[in-house]
Structure formats: structure tokens, C-alpha cells
Amino acid sequence: MNKLFEKLHEKEELPVSLKSEVMQSYDMVKLITDISDLFTNKFFKSTAVFLSGEDTSEKTDSIENDDDTK
Amino acid sequence: MNPADFQKLSDNDVITLIIEKGEKQALGILYDRYAAAIFRKCLAMCGNAEQAKDLAHDVILKSFMSLSSLKNRDAYKFWVNRIAYNICIDYLNLKKKMKIDFLEEGSPENVTEDNSTREEKVLKEMQLEQLEILFQELSEQDRVILLMQYQDAMRIEDIAEILQIGKSAAKMRIKRAKERLVKLYDELATNQL
């Protein structure tokens, strides 16, 4: 009985285009996931830096460095 | 690694290559091994080749995207089958429908082991062409549960879990589906006389 069910629709051909469609979708979803992960990681990293108070980013707007004040 | 070497690898090795070394070519090997069976399973459940193609696409893609969550990598075949059932059932919206049918059919409390020997006998005598015709006549939920039982030899516990019903209800559902299949077979035989 199992063998009969195993053969169900065995004459139906697998659509040839399916493989390329799956691979394209995989690439697309992987790209979106990677970008999403990148943003998530950046967000968590910057949050962690902010909470630790160790923000080492360059200060660009300080009054000392502003030549126009002279 | 050349394609011939890939063919010799076990599912475990292929999946390890994909996850740990990012070998995209290995995805193609998994596809070649299982896509046809998945497509045919989707076709048996939904009865429409175009829809089966879309469903098979979703099943394979979901399995590829979740490969890292697969603990037993040699069990890919069973795992992807499960994904196929889940996706097809969602598509057919069977979960809700089956619960309604189950209530309509009465309490499953007294359902014991299936002893319907006549049904088993008929099923053994059935020809593939007849089964394919009858499968088109069956309801979607009957098709799904018969595939689980006879194509994949799934345990009652697993069938019950996927369908989100109790074990007794699953047994009852199989029994009823089998009865309906045999009834259709009898009708077909009568018409052919």
C-alpha cells in the first residue's frame, strides 16, 4: 500500500523553471536577511556603546575646533 | 569540489557544507534530491500543478532558509516533508476546517485501533491509475491525512501534532478518509461494470 502511494503522480514532471526560481528567491531573501542583520547589529552595538558611556566617536562640532570664532 | 563529489555526500555532509562553508552549489544537490518528491506531494494535496509548483517553491525555500535550525541533519527528508505538510495545510486552510469536521463527526473517545480489514484489502488491490482518479475526488483533508499515513508512514502522534488535533481524532480521521476512499472505489467499480 505504501508503495502505491509513493508512486502517486510519479508521471508528473517537476517544472524545470522551479530550480532557478527557488535559487533566485533564496538569493533575494538571503540579501534582505543579511541587510536586516547588519542594521540590527549596528543598532545593538551603538546602543551598547551609548549605555556604557564609552562613546568614542569624533566630536566635529566642538567650539574649540571652530575657526570661525576667532 | 566537483558536482560528482557532491553527489556522494550524505545529507548531513551537504548541509554542513552549506552552513559552515557557504557552499551554494550544495543547495542545488539538496534540491535535486528532494524537489520532485516535494512537488508531487504538494500536487497530491492541492490537486493543481500550477499551485503545487508555488507551494513546492515555498517549501524548499523555507527549508533552505531554516537549515541552521535543523538539529539532525540526516533527517532533512523527514523535516522537509513536515514543512510541506504545514505549508500545504496552511494553504488549504485545513486546520480550521478539520476541527469543524471533527465536531460534526461526533466524539472520538471510543475510537480504538482500526480493524477495517475490508478497506485494507481493497486498498491492497487498488491500481495506481485508480488511486490517482479517486484522489481527485477526495476532499483535501482526506488527501492530506492519507498521504501522511500511507506515503510517509507517519506516527499517529506526529499526524495529530501537525493537524493540531488529538490522537483519537487523528485515528478517526484516518479511518473515515479510508472509508470514503473505498466507497469511491466501489462507485468507480460499479460504474465500470
Q: Could you characterize what this model shows?
A:
The complex is a heterodimer of chains A (70) and B (193). Chain A has 70 residues and is mainly α. Chain A contains two helices and no strands. With 193 residues, chain B is mostly helical. Helix content of chain B is 78%, strand content 0%. The longest helix of chain B is centred in the C-terminal third of the chain and has 26 residues. The chains are: A mainly alpha (70), B mainly alpha (193).
What string, H for helix and E for strand, traces the elements of chain B in order? Answer: HHHHHHHHHHH
Structural class of chain B, by secondary structure, is: mainly alpha
Structural class of chain A: mainly alpha
Count of DSSP H/I helices of chain A: 2
Major beta sheet summary of chain A: none
Quick description:
With 70 residues, chain A is mostly helical. Chain A has 2 helices and no strands.
List the helices and strands and how they pair.
The complex is a heterodimer of chains A (70) and B (193).
Chain A: H1 2-6, H2 17-52
Chain B: H1 3-8, H2 11-21, H3 24-46, H4 49-65, H5 76-92, H6 94-104, H7 117-125, H8 128-137, H9 140-151, H10 156-163, H11 167-192
Helix pairs in contact in B: 2-3, 3-4, 3-5, 3-9, 4-5, 8-11, 9-11, 10-11
